[in-house]
Amino acid sequence: MLLEVEGLSVNYGHIEAIRGVSFGVEEGTIATLIGANGAGKTTTLKTLSGLRKVREGKVVFDGTDITNLSPEKRVKLGISQSPEGRGCFPGMTVRENLDMGAYVRKDRRSKAYAEDLDRVFTLFPRLKEREKQVAGSMSGGEQQMLAMGRALMARPRLVLLDEPSMGLAPKLIQQIFAIITEINQQGTTVLLVEQNAAQALKRAHTAHVLETGEIVRSGTGTELAGDPAVKAAYLGGD
Ligand code: ATP
């Protein structure tokens, strides 16, 4: 397992946001957490990237206990997060945002940096077209792409994607999910948090359902997509 999450509990004051959450992500796969609003999906991702403190439990990345590591150290180890919504630096250009994603690497003039930039521009041609535009003036979908591109600039082994399809038009949703599969096929392990359960289950190798802070079901994407309870609650009953 590249990532092992064991009995994770996180509180906001007295509110238990997640309770005893355990799952693993195998290297080279796409794993997804699905669940309704407030189920604890974002909290789980924030905890994995080091932005929230753990009350109980353990996070192991590639054999190293990272439970109490700073976000910067986690990025250096190879975990980077694409935040929910418009998580870009609005006053900076597209290119400057992408450079921020590569900030942990001190090789901005190197071949590796040029290759990563090229990879992001190939995945998201729109970002290449808008290289000099300030992020704040781009559409929601474009900013979502920029947030994903920025996360990839850290050359992560594991990328954490928080609701990449949120607020996007149906055509763009298809496109974003196809890009997620492509990113994975290029060798990056993906942990995807989504409310768009149908698309997420279709793309994911393994999947978990979060309900009020707890994992209530786990399986392959295909298994959960065929599970009557999952269908009724998350797939519009068909
Ligand atoms: P959504 O899909 O709506 O983003 P989610 O599954 O990502 O939801 P979280 O944002 O992780 O859910 O929230 C889990 C629980 O923790 C919710 O009950 C939420 O109200 C609570 N919570 C989240 N952030 C805070 C905060 N900063 N302070 C207090 N409670 C919070």
UniProtKB/TrEMBL annotation:
The ABC transporter domain, residue ranges: 3-237
Keywords: Amino-acid transport, ATP-binding, Nucleotide-binding, Transport
GO biological process, one term: L-amino acid transport
Pfam families: ABC_tran
GO molecular function: ATP binding; ATP hydrolysis activity; branched-chain amino acid transmembrane transporter activity
Classification via InterPro entries: AAA+_ATPase (IPR003593), ABC_branched_ATPase_LivF/BraG (IPR030660), ABC_transporter-like_ATP-bd (IPR003439), ABC_transporter-like_CS (IPR017871), BCAA_Transport_ATP-bd_LivF (IPR052156), P-loop_NTPase (IPR027417)
Transmembrane spans: none
Family of this protein: Belongs to the ABC transporter superfamily.
Name listed for the protein in its UniProt record: ABC transporter ATP-binding protein
Organism: Nocardioides jejuensis
Lineage: Bacteria, Bacillati, Actinomycetota, Actinomycetes, Propionibacteriales
